[in-house]
Amino acid sequence: MVQDRLDIVALGEPLIEFNQTRAADPRAYVQGFGGDTSNMAIAAARLGARAGYVTRLGGDSFGRLFRELWSEERVDMRGVAIDADAATGVYFVTHGAQGHEFSYLRAGSAASRMRPETLPLDVVRSARLLHVSGISQAISASACDTVFAAIDEASAAGALVTYDPNLRLKLWPLPRARATILATMARCDWCVPSLDDALVLFGGDAAGAVAACHRAGASGVVLKLGAEGCIVSDGARQQHVPAHRVTPVDATGAGDCFDGAFATRLLAGDDPFAAAAYANVAAALATTGFGAVAPLPRDADVRAALGRVAA
Asked: Domain residues of the chain, as ranges?
């Protein structure tokens, strides 16, 4: 019998963030937190889900900061291990005419040393939904194997699986990325790629990208279109869900917020189209401040923006 069942378990690599403020001194940075699956878990927790995280942290001050953060955000840490021989990853965000750019210090990170045999099976099996990412697969071969092992365990326990390919070609070559992503789509319930990633993987246009994800085996697809909203397809019905308009400041982590919000509302009983409408608003609100975590909204913020009264 599974004890202490969690709504959502995300697996991946957390990263300490240093985000350029774009103030008078362009050398000024604000320390924050990132890592796509960590962002997703925190977003889900803020929106009302009981969320947990599976990863490895370095035995360093940055690892301690993450544990403090997850404790404050009520993210379950039973799946978090400490690796005293590795460091917690770091990234920097700079802002320019072409938008935000990322620089990473993550080679050999503690999270990249995840292996299937270190997977906390009790935590993974406790999830109603497992969320995984292509970044987690790209950081090392052992981490990629761990993602597939987690999918197998969660699926066997009856969980839904959501997957964001989050394509990062600086981490792995496109042929390997495409093969791995296609194999993962075949094992997920909902694939939630961005349009940019889908076009690199499949070419064509948005409609073709949705069809390609279904052909790969994804039961459901949410194609994230940024400021244009998203396209949702459950295999029988397809619909464009318009975006929520805001004045954006920093889009870092908005897609991760969408993933957390969509999963949270699916588990709450929303149909995928309503869940995506809610997630569009949450993701839009997440762009109205700096950093990946600080601007993540609460459920009350999203409902206020939707013009609804919380139940």
From this structure: 6-306
